[in-house]
């Protein structure tokens, strides 16, 4: 039999009113489909494990997220891709109706469990064309000139992590948004964190 972690229950209890029924429903469905699943908390949010990480869920101020970890499950043809930076494969979940029907979601959970149990490796197809490095925007460069420590961390980051910060900054639609993102970026970079550190640990 699977195991439940009291920390997951506490996480759900602490979540916003709109999020609690969504998280409770996902938790119950995962356990029903995969009775041997084990709960845990990784990087601050609930994960479900079955021969490795199976799936995870999280709540934020205005939405929830749910997603699978196996590479073959991350590009689901019949699941809506995450939008606007949302974690997981189902976009920003604000009500239960934003999720696929239970039967469809159960089938996806079952497929992910089978992949994990069979030891199928998460192989990603190589990119067709290498992505060219992005130039550091002038406002980011100016901020680095005032914070050499942040610059050192940024220079030591992988190209993909540097790209995430640059794209996040230049994608801001308003000047105010860009200034806020710049301040946040310098703070996180100065602490040696990648932009998605909340999900990756650092």
Which secondary structure elements does this structure contain, and how are they paired or packed?
Blueprint: H1 6-14, H2 19-33, E1 38-42, E2 45-49, E3 53-59, E4 64-68, H3 102-117, H4 138-146, H5 148-156, H6 159-170, H7 175-190, H8 197-200
Antiparallel strand pairs: 1-2, 2-3, 3-4
Helix pairs in contact: 5-7, 6-7
Comma- or semicolon-separated keywords:
elongated; 11% strand; 45% helix; alpha+beta; 202 residues; 2 domains; 4 strands; Aspartate Aminotransferase, domain 1
Description:
This protein is of the alpha+beta class and 202 residues long. 45% of the residues lie in helices and 11% in strands. The chain has two domains: 6-117, Aspartate Aminotransferase, domain 1 (Alpha-Beta Complex), CATH 3.90.1150; 138-200, no CATH class. The chain has helices spanning 6-14, 19-33, 102-117, 138-146, 148-156, 159-170, 175-190, 197-200, and strands spanning 38-42, 45-49, 53-59, 64-68. The chain has a four-stranded antiparallel sheet. Strand 2 and strand 3 (53-59) form a beta hairpin. Helix 5 (148-156) crosses helix 7 (175-190) and helix 6 (159-170) packs antiparallel against helix 7.
Describe the structure concisely for a colleague:
It contains 8 helices and 4 strands. With 202 residues, it is an alpha+beta fold.
What's the alpha carbon Rg, rounded to whole Å? 19 Å
- The outline comes out as elongated
User: What structural class is derived from the secondary structure elements?
Assistant: alpha+beta
Beta strands, count: 4
Count of DSSP helices?
Answer: 8
CATH class of the largest domain: Alpha Beta
Alpha-carbon distance between the two ends: 33 Å
CATH topology (fold) name of the largest domain: Aspartate Aminotransferase, domain 1
Tell me the number of structural domains. Answer: 2
